[in-house]
Task: structure prediction
Amino acid sequence: MTSASLRRVDPTRQADPLRRAYVAFLGTRAGRWTAINIAPKIDPWLLNVSRGRLGMALMLPSTLITTTGAKSAQPRTNAVLYFHDGADVIVIASSYGRDSHPAWYYNLKANPRVTIGAGQQMTATEVIDESERARLWASADRVYPLFADYRVRAATLGRVIPIIRLNENV
Result:
């Protein structure tokens, strides 16, 4: 996949009413349960067969990220929400605000070369500068407002949610 084939997501773009309603549903108990228990099982298949056009996230920007297993060295594919920051792709290792990072986070920390979408090779780095994190959180919250809730949930469990920058530089 080339950079052009991963749909560009501008975090400054205003969300339409349908997207806001869907995010509101995801903030409910039923929506959260669906997002945690059903979407991770269906999304990789759905995004793959639809060539990235349709996932359980519906109108939210989602794509596949393939990492190399930290222990197994096998490819592991997961669906993630994303947005662009300049030429870079930003993904959030939120795990719905639960007490541990998603497995794909540990994989990319061990092996930072990842594939996003249908084949775009990128290198992952964790954003650690606090002012940069604050700027990216503002963008992330515009793309998916429930990230703010996830940060609060994670903080009560003693976890800081990682922000990951993906770029094409080797």
